[in-house]
Design brief:
- This protein is mainly β and about 120 residues long.
- The model has no long low-confidence stretch (mean pLDDT about 90).
- The relative contact order is 0.19.
- Strands 1-2-3-4-5-6 form a 6-stranded antiparallel sheet, with no helix packed on it.
- Helices cover about 0% and strands about 75% of the residues.
- The chain is built from no helices and 6 strands.
- A hairpin with a 1-residue loop joins strand 3 and strand 4.
Length: about 120
């Protein structure tokens, strides 16, 4: 949701099925769930090509051999390319920290479609 031309907020829910490729535990299977909210700053909100930065946090659950529920913090950025007023392409990179006693550090690379549902256009 775009609050003003440069500022926006977004939410995300993810699900990833997990499967072992190890010879030690070949039949291990599980699931990963995640939810997070991010604040976005768009550098060129009126342009067709729009780079942005993101900062946010959320929650992650991994149910794979052991169960973990972790708070998460993320930062990153990406590019949006507008095809028209309500549809666009997007590519993102995020550095995600999961806190569970100590912390885990992971990177996430995504690409997809943007659907403008409301807010500032």
């Amino acid at each position: 949701y775009n609050l003003t031309p440069p500022w926006g907020v977004e939410g995300q829910f993810t699900y990833v099925p997990l499967r072992s490729t190890s010879r030690i535990v070949p039949s291990a299977r599980g699931d990963q769930y995640g939810a997070r909210a991010d604040i976005l700053y768009h550098f060129m909100p009126e342009g067709k090509l729009n780079p942005f930065l993101a900062l946010g946090g959320g929650w992650s659950r991994i149910d794979y051999i052991m169960k973990n529920d972790d708070a998460t913090l993320d930062y990153g950025g990406g590019l949006k390319y507008s095809l028209n007023k309500w549809l666009g392409l997007r590519a993102d990179v995020r550095h995600i920290f999961s806190f569970h006693g100590s912390y885990w550090s992971n990177f996430e690379y995504t690409a997809g479609l943007v659907f403008q549902l409301g807010g500032y256009k």
